[in-house]
Specification:
heterodimer, A: 429 residues, alpha/beta, Urease, subunit C, domain 1, TIM Barrel, 2 domains, nine-stranded mixed sheet, four-stranded parallel sheet, 19 strands, 29% helix, globular, B: 306 residues, Rossmann fold, five-stranded parallel sheet, 9 strands
């Protein structure tokens, strides 16, 4: 099949590519970039995206699909549909499923279920068996089966001794160890500790519970080797530690979620359980530090920490509600609204944080917009104004605090694996 | 005169006029409680549900008596008989109760924010009878009533709340209410029992009980929750008694009149000695009586709003 993506502004910073062109795609391969002839246009299905941007497909390296285990909240298929609609052509799914992704069989099951979709799904496997922090998961076998990183996400690797083993062992395959940084001995709470938690009377978890583990992990990565990736960084102090560690040449990278650069814990005065997540929303000083970290490259990428939960699980008393929100279909809009339109990041920087850096961290090839290459694209409009409507989410879950929020910027289409998703409808090309 | 909100969720943000109105109305009902027939027909035909998801004997009885004395129809729901144990969600439980046509809900729950949550899922007037470690507004109102009854005013008074500030709900409501009424509020207790950034509410913090006694007109002594704190926030109850316990020797040393309140139940010999708890400066049982009058006032003012 032959399609044309017409009139787009190509933006692919790792190729130093920035120009306006038409793309001729035949059987999923970019055949031609440039002005197309009348005949070529005539014999193709034309998608007119005049003056919209076209970048290498975006990648979300922190997604919770609930399959296997809680298919009522999200399946591999519905999560992939949600990703495609939100602007992503690839996702990494975290291992806190039931059973956990700690055997090659589960990795292969996920890959088999994901096969044939527009969205590439790469499992992140558990670092330790059952994510319990007691014995190493079969990291080499998991890697061979297709796991792209290792994490006990939901919790940090339990103790420093086990962390050392995971770092040393995973360094043999150069895979990142993705850490949810939280010292559980300090965190028996439900929101950030500070004046707001005191006013709201909510048991709280202090930012230092994150900082202590970030410090431990960075020091261990320096000592033991291996690579540490800090998931959903949320505090000022942690951003500074990552900055200094990078200066010292320690192999550490970091991601941030859109909610951690959009909201502060001031928002919790409504006791909206859709604002309950781990790590919790922090303070304005933390948000400012995160934005600085995004600007100077301390924070490498933006990831949603997409965490689907059923309505009946979230519509409960605050302290009983589970942590997490869905984010795949709002994060591109939030990134453009909060980072581009507020002049913190350029379009190129946003493309780096969405498309290039996450794949580099996971040792995945970064798509190029080049004749002869597979078409793996995200087409977006940074200026379109739209209102979030959670009832239209492709995700099975609707636990979003951003419902009815006005956003500026949106993904219009994604292309990958010989398929195109326009809006949220996927078709073969 | 009527209140500015149809719910009583807490004392944070409640205007001075509202608190004044509740306290003044309580004075009228306090007089009713001294009559041989302690009942008025004010809330006849109103249905009130006491939704108690946490054990509470005295608060529930106080509310129930207040409701009965206003001639309302009351139903009690407590966790031991609740359907939440059968896996029903809080929301479904509330919707079911609501479907039986109730006018007001009094709620006690271990999760902060539940009264706010109730306003979203129910049309009834909501009264917070304690939500976790957040607020307990009627307790603070009855504390203020008892102080005013004894001293004659709240404005300009120096009131210190002593004890476990962070694990309780009484302190926060008292801080909000007393400050609104023009009192000067301070706290006293071990640093592990002070919530983070509490000073930002405009309160002074003492770590020496003698300083607290010396500098205040009123001490509101909170219960130390033995089961929860030993080993975590304080080493032993003995150490707490030694350094923070209110004893008559301590009071005598300062040679001044200090009014003593305690919301109960008392741990005699821990936060307060028996001598002080039964002594001339305390109003502990007055608080209990006043509690019924204050709750009658709140129920009346909310139940007759249009």
């Amino acid at each position: 099949m032959q399609v044309v993506i017409k009139g787009v502004k190509l933006v692919s910073p790792h190729q130093k590519l920035s120009k306006k062109a038409d793309l001729l795609i035949v059987d999923g391969i970019i055949q031609k970039i440039g002005d197309l002839s009348k005949e070529e246009l005539k014999s193709s299905t034309v998608y007119d995206f005049e003056d919209k941007y076209c970048a290498p497909g975006f990648y979300d390296m922190h997604v919770h699909l609930r399959e296997p285990g809680r298919e009522d909240k999200e399946t591999i298929l519905t999560g992939s549909n949600s990703a495609a609609a939100g602007g992503f052509t690839g996702i990494a799914c975290m291992p806190n499923t039931n059973p956990a992704i700690d055997s090659a069989e589960v990795v292969l099951l996920i890959k088999a279920k994901a096969a044939g979709h527009l969205v590439d799904v790469h499992p992140v496997a558990a670092a330790t068996l059952g994510r319990k922090g007691e014995s190493l998961a079969p990291i080499l076998e998991l890697h061979e089966a297709g796991a792209v990183g290792f994490s006990d996400d939901g919790v940090a690797i339990k103790d420093a001794g086990m962390l050392r083993n995971v770092l040393e062992y995973s360094s043999m395959v150069n895979a990142p160890v993705i850490e949810h940084c939280e010292d559980v001995s300090l965190s028996h709470g439900h929101m950030n500790e500070g004046f707001n938690s005191t006013k709201l009377g909510l048991p709280a978890l202090p930012s230092i519970s994150e900082d202590l583990i970030v410090m431990r992990d960075i020091m261990m990565a320096e000592y033991a080797g291996g690579r540490i990736h800090i998931a959903h960084i949320s505090t000022k102090e942690s951003v500074e530690m990552v900055r200094q560690a990078k200066k010292k040449g320690i192999k550490v990278t970091a991601e941030v979620t859109p909610h951690h650069f959009t909201y502060t814990d001031d928002a919790l005065k409504t006791y909206d359980t859709n604002l309950k997540m781990s790590p919790p929303l922090r303070t304005q000083a933390d948000v400012n530090a995160i934005i600085e970290g995004l600007k100077d490259g301390t924070i490498d990428c933006i990831a949603s920490d997409h965490a689907p939960h059923a309505i009946e699980e979230k519509e409960v008393e605050f302290i009983y509600a589970p942590n997490g929100i869905v984010g795949l279909e709002t994060q591109v809009g939030l990134a453009f609204s909060e980072l581009y339109h507020k002049k913190h990041l350029t379009i190129e920087q946003i493309v780096e944080k969405f498309a290039i850096n996450p794949r580099t961290i996971l040792n995945l090839p970064v798509p190029e917009i080049k004749e002869g290459e597979k078409a793996n694209l995200t087409i977006f409009d940074p200026d379109v104004v739209w209102t979030v409507d959670k009832s239209k989410f492709k995700s099975l879950s609707k636990n979003s605090p951003f419902d009815k929020r006005l956003l500026t910027g949106k993904s219009l289409a994604t292309v990958n694996n010989s398929q195109i998703c326009v809006g949220s409808e996927i078709s073969k090309i | 005169m009527s209140l500015s909100s149809r719910h009583l969720l807490g004392l944070s943000g409640v205007p001075k006029e509202d608190i004044q109105l509740i306290l003044d109305t309580a004075t009228t009902f306090r007089e009713v409680l001294e009559r041989p027939i302690k009942k008025v027909p004010t809330l006849q035909g109103k249905t009130i549900v006491n939704l108690f998801f946490e054990n509470s004997t005295r608060t529930r009885i106080s509310f129930e008596l207040a409701q009965k004395r206003l001639s309302a129809d009351t139903v009690n729901f407590s966790t031991s008989t609740s359907s939440t144990k059968k896996g029903e969600t809080f929301k479904d439980t509330v919707r079911n109760i609501e479907a039986m046509k109730v006018d007001m809900i009094v709620v006690r729950h271990e999760s902060p924010g539940v009264p706010q949550f109730l306003t979203q899922i129910s049309d009834a007037n909501i009264i917070n009878a304690g939500d976790g470690t957040h607020e307990h507004p009627t307790q603070a109102l009855l504390d203020m009533y008892s102080i005013r009854e004894k001293v004659g005013k709240l404005e300009g008074l120096k009131v210190c709340i002593v004890g476990d500030i962070g694990h309780g709900r009484v302190a926060l409501s008292n801080i909000h209410g007393l400050k609104t009424m023009g009192a000067e509020v301070s706290l006293c207790g071990p640093s592990t029992m002070m919530p983070r950034a509490i000073e930002e509410l405009g309160v002074k913090v003492y770590h020496k009980i003698d300083d607290a006694i010396e500098n205040n007109d009123v001490l509101n002594v909170l219960r130390i929750q033995l089961e929860r704190n030993a080993g975590a926030s304080i080493p032993t109850t003995r150490e707490y008694r030694t350094y923070f316990g209110l004893t008559s020797e301590r009071l005598k040393k300062h040679n001044k009149d200090v009014l003593i309140l305690h919301p109960g139940p008392i741990n005699r010999g821990v936060e307060i000695s028996s001598e002080v708890a039964d002594g001339p400066y305390q109003v502990i049982l007055n608080q209990v009586t006043n509690g019924v009058a204050v709750r009658m006032a709140v129920l009346y003012l909310l139940g007759t709003m249009h």
